[in-house]
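Example 9 (inverse folding). The structure is encoded as follows.
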């Protein structure tokens, strides 16, 4: 008992605090990022948030975190995939005092909800301000939350993954430049060495395949452009006989009427990396006509939205309404689309009829994406930031 008490109260160097990790069936970028820290950093642990609610200054009211019973259940199943991490996955206890040298959390909303915990326990922290997570451009309510975080005595730094975010913080004079760390991109769920050979239309398969990949956050999925995807699919079904459409995420066939194309479209639900790795081998185009400022005021997605399929060799046809692209070349390694179903359909038909150009573009896009989103590069850049505030002991 005494040993356990000492172990629980010993100062820990570096921790991630998150609301959904670990997962019963691990997937998505947070799982990927946190697992890399386990693999690379010796003095690292993860903590799962107990249920926490934001204060009254937040523009949202929902909470973050999970019960201990849910945590234990999730961890048990997670360990079927990553058994070596057992002793470093822990649960925050509401009444306990913690002594962390540096904590790291994701998104504005979760970090804001964690702020009272950080201040009560005097924990220095860094967070990553990904697009989404209650962060909005020129949204006063979001600004108030950011300013409260930046004014905290325990705020150490913020990682931003898009230049638009860095420019916004500097323009609004919310945060000094020396506390903003720009690392473009994020985390994919795959290692490039585990990807199989791409299947090509008319050579390895008889259908031309287009996918939409997103979760549903709004009616009709207008923020992700699901309505435009369906409109485009209906147009292409009238003009072709062998283009098939695939939807990954929690959209259902009842979201928007697809009865006229029901033989040409398939819904898969949310899928794990093992499925997606095989799925993307068969897909020719990833279509993402997402719209900024449609989910809540100032809301936007990172560019490009949907890195995983492009990383796996699928041609990315993506919108960029805010002009965020500063790495890809339109027509060379990516296709920038306008959010107009007629224009999207015509663009797709051009590449449907010019397969050599399509597959050259998808390969160029894959090569660039695998370079920009290389998991070792992404982790190493973050470790450089953490080392400004705490000693990081690497494994091996």
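The amino acid assigned to each position is listed next.
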């Amino acid at each position: 008992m005494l040993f356990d008490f000492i172990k629980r109260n010993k100062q820990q160097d570096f921790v991630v605090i998150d609301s959904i990790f670990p997962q019963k069936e691990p997937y998505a970028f947070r799982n990927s990022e946190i697992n890399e820290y386990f693999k690379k950093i010796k003095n690292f642990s993860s903590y799962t948030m107990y249920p926490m609610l934001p204060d009254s200054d937040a523009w949202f009211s929902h909470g973050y975190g999970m019960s201990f019973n849910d945590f234990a259940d999730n961890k048990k199943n997670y360990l079927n995939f990553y058994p070596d991490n057992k002793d470093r996955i822990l649960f925050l206890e509401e009444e306990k005092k913690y002594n962390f040298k540096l904590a790291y959390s994701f998104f504005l909303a979760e970090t804001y909800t964690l702020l009272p915990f950080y201040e009560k326990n005097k924990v220095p922290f860094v967070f990553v301000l990904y697009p989404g997570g209650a962060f909005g451009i020129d949204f006063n309510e979001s600004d108030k939350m950011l300013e409260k975080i930046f004014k905290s005595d325990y705020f150490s730094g913020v990682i931003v993954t898009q230049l638009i975010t860095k420019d916004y913080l500097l323009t609004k004079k919310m945060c000094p430049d020396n506390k903003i760390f720009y690392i473009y991109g994020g985390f994919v769920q795959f290692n490039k060495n585990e990807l199989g050979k791409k299947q090509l239309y008319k050579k390895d398969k008889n259908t031309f395949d287009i996918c939409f990949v997103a979760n549903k956050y709004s009616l009709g999925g207008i923020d992700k452009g699901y309505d435009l995807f369906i409109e485009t699919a209906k147009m292409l079904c009238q003009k072709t006989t062998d283009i098939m459409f695939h939807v990954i995420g929690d959209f259902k066939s009842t979201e928007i009427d697809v009865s006229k194309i029901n033989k040409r479209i398939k819904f898969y639900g949310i899928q794990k990396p093992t499925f997606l790795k095989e799925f993307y081998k068969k897909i020719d185009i990833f279509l993402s006509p997402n719209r900024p400022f449609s989910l809540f005021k100032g809301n936007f997605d990172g560019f490009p939205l949907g890195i995983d399929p492009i990383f796996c060799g699928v041609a990315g046809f993506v919108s960029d309404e805010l002009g965020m692209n500063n790495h890809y070349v339109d027509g060379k390694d990516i296709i920038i689309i306008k959010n107009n179903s007629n224009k999207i359909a015509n663009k797709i038909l051009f590449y449907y009829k010019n397969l050599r150009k399509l597959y050259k573009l998808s390969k160029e896009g894959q090569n660039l994406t695998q370079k920009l989103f290389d998991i070792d590069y992404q982790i190493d850049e973050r470790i450089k930031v953490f080392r400004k505030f705490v000693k990081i002991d690497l494994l091996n």
